[in-house]
Amino acid sequence: MKFVGTDDSFFIVFTLAALWNAGAQDSCAHRCEEHLGTCSCQVTCQSLRICCPDYKEFCLQISPYSGSLMGGKDFLIESKALNVSSVLTCRFKQKIQTSGYVAKDGTAHCISPLLYETGFIPFEVSTDDGLTFPYSGTWLSVHHSKVTDDEKCKLVNETKWQYYGTPNTDGNLTLTWTRQALAATHINIEVWGYQETGESYSENWLAEWKYLYTLAREFPNTGIFSFIPEPAKGNYSTWDFGILRIIPSSYSDGQSNIPSVWSNEHALAWHLGKDFRNDPNAWATAKCLEWDRKEEKLPNFMEEIADCPCTLAQARADTGRFHTDYGCDIEKGSVCTYHPGAVHCVRAIQASPQYGSGQQCCYDSTGTQILTRDSTGGSTPDRGHDWGSPPFLKPPRIPGFSHWLYDVISFYYCCLWSDNCDFYMKRRPSSDCRTYRPPRAASAFGDPHFFTFDGLNFTFNGQGEYTLVESDLTSLRVQGRTQQAHFPNGTGAQGTGLSAVAMQEKGSDVIEVRYSEDLNLEVLLNQRVLNFSEQTWMDLKGLFLYSTPDHNITVMFSSGSGVEVRGSGGFLSLTVLLPEKFQNHTQGLFGVMNGNTEDEYTFKNKTTMSIHASPQQLFEFGANWAVENGTSLFTYDTEFLLNSFFYGEKHNASFLPVFVPHEDPADPLVEQMALLCDSDPFCRFDVLTTRSLQVGNSTRLSHQNHKLLVEHLEPVISCGWLDHPINGRKNGTSYLLGSTISFSCNQGYELTGSKERTCQASGAWSGDTPSCTWGTDIKQLILLGSVFGVVALAVLARLTFLCRKQR
């Protein structure tokens, strides 16, 4: 049973700490019983999930609710319990304390700390200078690259900054920031470095951000600072990359967890000494070789990362397992600095299980994967996943920074600052796609029409809450709620549409996407409304959550399953993507995923119904998958939802829809429908049942999107990479079914083996391996050279003999 508040401003709900005594629990529980269904805050009393109507006395609200994992963000706390006399202390994860204060206007504030992980971080607030911490909540720690630009100081010319000290990169460097971000008249600018110490992949392997030195002191907080860098005093050559921090001058050097503005992380080349500036190529070569020797001793992470999708279309469609690499995005102009020739790259969403590694896949303008064995712009996997991975804290799982240390700065050393990219590509070779298996897709949209994982489609427009798919493999559950559709004049129609979708996998957070009463799209995290004004990407428990600018929602679970929800014509449109491992492990309205449509209509008791069932029989099948009481993932926070879905039957047996809508040629709407829908039966069905061309058009577009998605996810055969022959060349870098690679030899060599090889349906290349051997001209030249050599030796011997004889 779940009840949450209806206070719109209460988008982050905090819980009371487990300091309440048994009497307080009983009192709170009693008050909940008295106000069942009307309370405004969900709280936890010593693990007992209950709801208190007097939340304003205990619960806290904060704004903003998120910031960089580097810390230093000043956020506002609102609570009746806090006042000017309060002496605030803020404690994160029960051990990291930061400053709290009450401003002159009576508002309370906390400072977020430096963290080494992302996601919702528990924190507590003390009003008695740290003696007790009776209030608790959560702070969203965000990957440093994903916070907004006004939260960071900006390097005006980042490339020059990172290359400073190499030829043709002299001159001023400029740092800018939003001066209002720090309440100070003067600031200090510090240099911090990042390192990971201890034995790799062991318990003593630790990550550390460390203060190195102060670049400027008591500088006016004007929002701009220009300077000519000089080599830093002291030995900092061991610090590969770092970051700048701006703090109020009233704080001491390197003081932790204080108001701060951080720059982007960057290579610490500009402050290095004369050995770097005199010969950066030699310096970088030595660094590259040192990295190569270290890599030799580390485990081979390549063995456990997933293969890349074969095509760009597959990579963009497999949204449960791959997500756009922001460093090379086709939607943003394909500025692919580290992957020349690529138009789009994606990263595997989940890190590998043992080593926390990541996969990257890049594609050219033809949609073909680029491999490092063919081009320096090829896909390069990562020892440290860019987004980190639970349990974080231990390298190489630190979000962003482990990736920089093992995969980015080494690219600078080997490829950008010296001509040793072959060393880098040897350690970071692209994986091809021979073992890649695309996911299967199921969709629901319109009034609602269901497309199963095995390709069967049917219409079921019951009213209630239903199991769309559940799996015993990962305890995945995706549930859908349908509500009655309405005619344009507001009266009820004999059809329904998806109004909410809720989902969970194993012990993950629960995500619900729904239409609110005012027809705005809402996302709920564990029954609490989320606000996407600050963040569009969230690392949550057991899943990632992403919201596009047009408010499409994608949920990516740790199993690789993905759920996409879109608002469409007043109804929700839903797509579920499941990897191959879910084969024979699904049930629900989306059927049994096994490639066999004959068992698609399987009831809860495992009996099946013919795929040629009538619409009325399909209605009975759909009703059988109504959610059972006690298993619902949905939130019931309004009187309408309580009465309609919580207290009512999960399937409204009294609601009978139109099973086969009548198409009257004399109806003026029919002519418009024919022009809009053409032969799309689902578009026509929805226009007739709702009398709305807008609904029909949304259904038509959703149907087209589903067909295109299924097309893009068709399996593709790859025969694997082919090398060119020694002393020869190859023409072509596509290794998929039907691709032909041709071979030729350098001048003076002859080709043996196949001149062309074609990728066959069996996954093998046609023909024989080509090779280049000496040609006839070279053989004759060698023979002639041998003859002249023998003659020359004979002449030399004769001359030697005559000289000795003469003496």
Describe the model.
By secondary structure, the chain is of the alpha+beta class. The chain folds into six domains: 22-142, Immunoglobulin-like (Sandwich), CATH 2.60.40; 148-278, Sandwich (Immunoglobulin-like); 280-427, no CATH class; 440-654, Mog1/PsbP, alpha/beta/alpha sandwich (Protein Transport Mog1p, Chain A, 3-Layer(aba) Sandwich); 728-774, Complement Module, domain 1 (Ribbon); 778-807. It contains 13 helices and 40 strands. The strands form nine sheets. Strands 3-5-8-7-6-9-10-4 form an eight-stranded mixed sheet, with no helix packed on it. An eight-stranded antiparallel sheet has the order 24-23-22-35-34-33-32-31. It has a six-stranded antiparallel sheet with strand order 25-26-27-28-29-30, covered by helices on one side. A hairpin with an 8-residue loop joins strand 9 (119-126) and strand 10. Helix 10 (668-677) runs antiparallel to helix 11. Mean pLDDT is 88; it is low at 1-57.
